[in-house]
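Note on ligand handling. Small-molecule inputs were canonicalized before submission; formal charges were left as drawn, and no protonation-state enumeration was performed. Where a ligand contained multiple stereocentres, the stereochemistry in the source SMILES was retained. For pyridoxal-5'-phosphate, this procedure yielded the string shown in the input block below.
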Amino acid sequence: MHGYVPGEQPRGGSVVKLNTNENPYPPSPAVVAAVAACASADLRLYPDPAATPLREAAARVYGVTPEQVLVGNGSDELLTMLMRTFVGADDVVVYPEPTYSLYDTLVTIQEGRSLTIPFPPDFTLPPAIADAEGRVLLICNPNSPSGTFTPIDVIADLAREWAGLVVVDEAYVDFAPASALSLLARHDNVLVLRTFSKSFSLAGMRIGLAFGHPDVIAQLGKVKDSYNVSRVATAAGVAALEDYEWMRRNTARIVATRQRLTDGLRALGYDVLPSAANFVLARRSGVVQASIQARLRERGVLVRHFATPRLADALRVSVGSDDEIDRLLAELRPLI
Ligand SMILES: Cc1ncc(COP(=O)(O)O)c(C=O)c1O
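Structure output:
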């Protein structure tokens, strides 16, 4: 749904795909082996409905109990479950914007109301958030598409004051300095969402994790499809967590390349916000970037452009490998 364009195929030569924040490096060989081992007659059997082995592995790695963990078919499914559980007609969901566009779509499906508070130009969390009222407060941290990071103590202060649920979407947190998971012990109203699509190189497998108070997790579980996570995804998730070091090595490489990308884009005249994610937002103030995106695409380099007033003069570029970033910068240079 997000970023996939049918027919987006190479026109001769290889395509450099920097538009949906996938990982340029492969998943751990242990994950590939675990997936291969699933190709057996056991596929005739349903998976464990609660993905118990994966919840137990996540509990060990992240220092929580299995009752605090819910597994989704990607974190997009967890967001859907969240809205179906907690948002009914006219319920208010608060979030700063621009942010992940799926939030608005899901609130609309529930006939709820999005109360959006604009980020200032530096994308620090707008103070007006603290005064807003609603059932759910959503904070994407690091935020997409800005890549900016809100310090965890700022989120802790909000969680203390906020009467409803505070959801922290940490899709990109493994590229960032800190996580809101540390808040779970003190704040029953915090729910943290994670995905294996980015740092664990498993976008194609569809695995997401929700961490929260056992009562909140139990509520969410009520709207879950019985067998929402396949045997293959469950095994892949366990293997990925067991080879956590593989993920850490790849995220360290991506963080190093993020700096090269930032420096390279700045040298071409772009303003680049400091990013704590695996992408950067690069802006040329007042210069609409739609045609740059289209021309890059003709040259086989895919980046993301958002046709909204606030973001029209910006491009979001995923951090690929060093070679991919060199190719992007080389293709971009003659276009500006
Ligand atoms: C902020 C944010 N949350 C959630 C997701 C969904 O991730 P998943 O692949 O786990 O559904 C994305 C994917 O791009 C994202 O950017």
